[in-house]
Each structure stands twice: as C-alpha cells, then as structure tokens.
Specification:
Layout (H helix, E strand, L loop, with lengths): L3 H15 L6 E4 L12 E7 L17 E7 L2 E7 L10 H4 L1 H9 L3 E10 L9 E10 L26 H13 L5 E8 L7 H9 L4 E3 L3 H10 L2 E11 L10 H28 L5
Parallel strand pairs: 1-4, 1-5, 5-9, 6-7, 7-8
Antiparallel strand pairs: 2-3, 3-4, 5-8, 6-9
Amino acid sequence: MGTLYQSVQEAVSFLRSRLPATPQAAIILGTGLGGLDDRVQPAARILYEEIPHFPRSTVEGHKGDLLFGTMGGCRVAVMEGRLHYYEGYTLQQATLPVRILRELGAELLLINSASGGLDPDFAAGDLMLITDHINMMGDTPLRGVSDERLGERFPDMSRPYDRELIEIAVEVATDLEIALRSGVYVAVAGPNMETPAETRMLRVVGADAVGMSTVPEVIVANQVGFRTLALAAVTNVNIPDQMEPVSVQQVIATAEQCQPRIAAILEGVLQRWGSSRSCS
C-alpha cells in the first residue's frame, strides 16, 4: 500500500501529462453550486475516476470531474463535485484533491459550499463569507503518521482564511451590488441534518452557519500553503424553536439560485488577484 505522498505524486504526474498548462487557482464547488461552465474557457475536462487515487463523488448535485481552463484571466482547476466524510471516505481521502491541486502548482484555493444558517438574521439565499470556522467533525485530516513532505505536522490556524482575499471579495461584492454577509462556519460529520437541540448548541458555541464540508479542506490547505477564500450559500435557516423539515432537493434548489452570485464574486476575485500577477 502506497503512502499519501506517493498517491499525490502519482496523481500529479498523470494530470501533468494531460494538461496544457499549470493552474494558478483551484476551485471546489459545493452541493448545487456547479455551473461555472459559462464563466470558464475550457481547456480540458478529466473525470475523477481517470485520476490515480482520486476518490469518486457519490452525492447528488456533484458532477465528479475536474475542469481546467481560464476564468477571470487566470488558469483554474475546478472540482465539479467534492468529497465528503459522510460518504465513507476518511478525511485524508476526502482532502486528497487539495494536496494534488497544490502540488500541481495552484496558489489560490476558492471554496464554496451549501450551508444551513444559524444566525436568525440570515435568510435562505443569503451568501456568507467564511471568516473563521469550528471543527466539530470529531476528526482531522492531519491525524496519523506525519510526513514532512506533506507539510508541517502542527500547521498554524490563526488565519485560516486569507485576509487579502477576504478584502478583495468584499470589494467585488460591493461593486457588483451583491449582499455578502460574513461569519463563522461549523463543520459536522453528517449526513443527517441537525436536531433543534444540536442547532441551539452550535449557535451557542459561536457558529453562524453549519455544513458538512469545507473545514477539512481548509485545514489541509493551510498545511500545504494555499491562500484560501470560502463562501457559503445559506440554503435554509435553522431556528431551534421553529424547525421545519429540509430535503436535499430543497438545499440543491436554493444553492442553484445562489450560484450565479457566487460565480460572479469568484470571477471578480480572480480578475483582481490576477491583474497584479500577470495571470495568463
């Protein structure tokens, strides 16, 4: 059985043989948040199942392919479908793509995800800029034998989300007249939705939105040196004393309504970031 480092190297070697150029930014699309095809000038599309050691996405609303091309003037690699802990993958497996994309040469990691709002002032369809997070998944992708080739064993997490990118995102949203909230995202294991008591507890500990992804990816992103930005689409709002049933179909439908605004912000961030770095 090969090591995690070997898996990363074999996947990167394969991708380099198939790609016309090195991506400068990586994008991970969440549930119902695909559809960047109209903003990405495509150069290649590779199915997850073709890539050595790359897990397959099994969740509704996730395509399961890597789209390479140009967006906002920068070369991008877009994960059209992410991997989740609740699918049965270990967190090391679920975050393997983050390591691969960084080793491939990408400098920025732009993440979006569907989430449940915990702040009673939020409304379904709001966008939230993630400024910090809480890991309540009961695990971390860094657990296990340490390999210094993968990064520091104890990476600093005092600034998990890049402050310059946050400022750029706020400027872009303002210029586009897109309302953009900000807050703390808490990750839970899933796949079940939260009970009223769990929802109340998550709000008490300081979270503004809850989801089942993002945090493991950001932990690994910090370890490998990515500059990271994350946006959450608030697909429903959880008020403990007024909880209503929520279906995956409702989550996907609301996320799809958020997708054009998220895509516009991401494209604007890439344009402004790349303008000073000759992205081409």
